[in-house]
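I would like you to help me understand the sequence and structure tokens below and explain how sequence relates to structure.
___
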Amino acid sequence: MTRYAILAEGCHVVATARSSVHPIRAEAHRLSGFIEAGISGGAIDLEPRPQATIELRMDDLRAENTMYDTELKRRIDAKRYPTISGTVTDVGGAADGYAVRGDLSLHGVTAPVRGTARVTGSGQRIEVSGELTLDIQNFGLKAPRILMLRVYPEVQVDIQFVAEAEESG
């Protein structure tokens, strides 16, 4: 297995919530973490089981509107919980890439999540893209109402990043 470090720059995370009026988006362009996996022929070896940990700092997440950004940070209590982190617990084959299960820690609560991912590249550099839908209620958060705007609890998260193989010591 090779350990790949996520490159802090060049990442793209988009969280989109639906509302009664229009979608609400928040984006980040920095992540940290690693992936440990064997990769051959452009595919992830499922044995031994790949592992990964990904972290997003709340300071790096920005909503498209200042009012939404302020409300997002207030609801999540970003000062008390400055990071969102995920740990992969299982990876399996899927029709369009990989089915991924893991644990996500948000707002001081850890809950299981599942999504899909695609991995390209091999050797020294890999690119990962994936998506998942999470229900913020699973993390002790209530869907907000902002004036006449009702926000629904399901959030679509799309993620892309590049990771490079670490030097073995």
Remarks:
- The CA atoms of residues 97 and 118 lie 5 Å apart.
- The chain has a mean pLDDT of 92.
- The longest strand covers residues 149-165.
- The chain has one domain: 2-165.
